Amino acid sequence: MIVYSVLSPIEDVMRSVLVWLHDSVGIPWAWSIVVLTLFVRVALVPLTVRQIHSMQNLQQHAPEMKEIQRKYKGDRQKMNEELMKFYRENNINPAASCLPLVAQIPVFFALYFVLRNFTQHVDAKPAELGWLHVVPNIANHANSHWSGYLLLFIYAASQILSTYFMSATMDKTQRIIMMALPLVFITVVARFPAGLVLYWVTTNLWTVGQGVVTRRLVPKTPAPTKGKPAAKRPPDGGNGAKKEPPAPKPKPTPVAQQGPRRVKRKKGGARR
Asked: Are the C-beta atoms of 129 and 138 separated by less than 8 Å?
């Protein structure tokens, strides 16, 4: 098989790492898969950093891109040309957000081949292949035992959470579709070795943790300023400060009180 021959070097490396973790470090086989997953994700940190920066750029320039799409919605070719020009001018690489996923594809398939014939290449007893009383054998299909369905449930939940954190730049419809895909493919995933599903769950949980840390440490992109509706603005003329009431005008002095101030009689004299 061509794919098998291409992935053989990666398969040999992964099998050697699993054997080293189990025989030298003393970690059980299932937990060795978890540690192997962490090794893979740490190695992908540079690509993950580029992915985060790419998503931030896309989120920051989302209003301009939506305006281009609205302006050229009747001409898809022109819209694509303007978007590519906009990407070049603003140094945006949309494909960078997919780099960690693309890099994990060969690792995923290589681990599948390792686990498919695991007991033939590794001296592992069936009693040593369990995981937390959830998976009786990491080399068997995930649906081969009733407890494996719990692992499938954890997989679906972790996949939805990871999609939630990594789809911030998608519109609402695309986000719903991406979050529903794990439920659609769960019948296919159930035929995978339980150890491969365990790898998938671990990488999803890593993605969730990465999303939480990113949202806490990275400042949010400020939203474009828009004018508020007049009905919601305070009656201050729109300057945002509370309008002071007008100062009271001085009360005019009655005429009857002004007369004696203007005309005064001299002592001992008559008024002329």
From this structure: yes
